[in-house]
Amino acid sequence: MALREFREKINLKIYDSKPTVLKILSGSNVVVSFTAIAVLIYYYGFELSNETRDFCFAIIESSFGFYIFRFLLKLFYDFHPPTFLRQNWFEATIIFLLLIEGISYNLFNSMIIEPLFLSIGFKDFGDFSMVFVQMFVFVILLNNVLKDRKFKPWLKIHPGWLFTISIALMTLVGSLLLMLPEMSNIEGGMNFIDSLFLSMSSVSVTGLSTIDISSALTFKGQVIVLVLIKLGGLNTIAFGALMLIVAKFGVGIKYHEVIEDFVNKDSILNAKSMLTKIVVWATAFEIIGIVLLFIGFGNQGIFSDQGERMFQALFHGVSGFNNAGLSILEGGMMHPDIIHNQFVHSVIMILFFFGGFGMIYVFDLLEFKKLRERIKTPWKTIEFGTKISLFFTLGLLLFGAVVFIIFEWDNTLKDQSGLSSVLIAFFESMTTRNAGFNVVDTASLTMPVMIIFLFLMFIGASSGSAGGGIRTSTFAIMWASLISTIKGKPHTELFKRTISNDLVLKAYAIFLFFVIGNVIGPFTLAITEADLLASGKFDFMDLVFEHVSAASTVGLSTGITSELSVSGKTVLVIAMFIGRVGTLTLAYLVGKKVISKNYKYPSAHTMVG
To answer: How high is the pLDDT of residue 50?
Structure first.
C-alpha cells in the first residue's frame, strides 16, 4: 500500500472527529497558557519554599508536555502533514528544541545548552536554565497570538487606539509585575506610583526613574525593566507595520491614512516583510552592540564576574539602541569603572545614533541592495526622508557639541583633555536629543547649555525611531517653511523638493500641541511642587527641564525626579505617555470627525506680525 493511500485512509478515519478534537485543543490551550503565565508570575514574584518551587516547575514541565502533545496532534489531524510543517515551521522548530531539551533534562539532569553558558562564566546555571526553558512558553504564546485568526467585523478599531491601548496595557502590566516582592529590595515591594513611573519610563524608553534601579531592583526586576524597554523600543514604524499585519482585527482601508503617519507610505503594502526586516536589523544592531560592550567593559571591577559582565552588556546594549537611558550601574555611565572608558562611550553613542535615526532610513542608507543600486546608478541618491533624518541629525549633533564645548570648557570639561572634551561634547549632544545617558553631572551644567539642551530635547529624534520629541522631520519642515516664507516663495521647498501644504500644517500642529503640553506640564508641576520650590533646593528651571525631558522621552534630569510628590510623578507619567504615543495620534483620537472634507470657506485676510 502506498504511503499516500495509507494517509488517505487515516484522513477518512479522523475526518468526523477533527472539529471536536481541535476545539478541545483550542480551549485547553487557553487554560494551559493562562495557568503557565500565572505560575511564572508566582514563581518569580514571591519568595517560595523548595517544595513550592518544585511544584511550580512541575506545572511548567506539564505545560511543555501539553504544547508538544498539542502540536503533534494537530500535525496528525492535518490532512496534509508536510504542508502543515512548512506553514508552521517556526512552531515546529520551537517544539523540536523543547523536546530535545526536555529529554536531555529528564534523562541526564542537564540541558544541552548548559556547557555553552558555563563556558562564558555562568557558574550557577540552575536559575538561568529555568529562565531559558520558560522562554519557550513566551515564544509559543506569542506565536499563537500572531497567527492568522478569524475575528468578527465588530472588532474594527482605530489604529491610534490600538497603539495607545497597547502602550497603556504594557505599562500597567509592567507596573504590577514590578510591585511583586521579589522584584525589588524594598521591604514589602515597590509602591504603585514608583512602579508605574518606572514601567512608563521603560515602555516609553525615557530613562527617568524615582528609584535607583541598580540597587533598588533585584536581578528579576532588572530583567522586567529590560523586557519593557525592548517592547517599548518597537518604534512607531514597526508598530505601523504590525497594525497592517493584524488587519484581521478589523483595521480597514478607511484607516490607512492614519496608518501612513506611522509607516512610510511607499512600504504600506509591504508591511509584513518590513516588520520582519525591522526586527532582524534592530536585533542585529543590539547583538553587535552587546558584543562590543562585553569586550569594552574589560575584566576589572564590577565586570570581573563574567555573568555580571554579560548581563551589563546585554542591558546597556538594548537600553542604548532603544534610546532608553536606563542603567543598572550605580551612576550610569558615570560609574567609576567606565567613566573614563572612551571605547564604551563611543559604542553607546553609535547605538544612540542608529536607534534614533529611524529604521526605514537606516535601510535606505545601509541596505546592500540600495548601496549596489546607487553605485550602478550614481544619479540615484538617498530618499527625501533619509536626507532629512541624516542632515538634520548630524547638523543638530554638531550644533549641540559646539555649544557644549564653548560654554562648558571652563566648567565640566576643565579637567579633560582635548580629545576627551570633544567626545564628551558629542556624547552629551547626542544623548540630549533622545537617549538619556550622561557622562557629566547635568545639574552642574551652565544655563546657556541647559537652554540649548531644552531646545534639542524638544526636537528629539527622527521619525520612526525609538526617540521622542517633535522629531527632526517636523523641525525640518518648519525650518523649510520659514526659509521659503522669508524668500517669498509660494511653496515650501527642501532639498529641491516641494513639500505639500498638508505636511506643513501637520508639522505646525505637532509643534503647537507640543508647546501647549510643555506649558501646561511645568505650570502644573509649579503647583504640585510648591513646597519643593520653597525649600530652595530646586528652582522652576529644574521643573521645566524635567517635564520637557519626560515629554520628549529623553530621560535627562537635574536630580529632582526622586524628590517629586505623588502628584508631580503622575504629571510626568502622563507626559511620558503622551510623548510615547505622540500628540498628533491623540489629536486624531479626540478630534471630531467631519462628514466631508470637500468644501472650502470664503477667503479671509488679517495682519500677521
So the answer is: 84
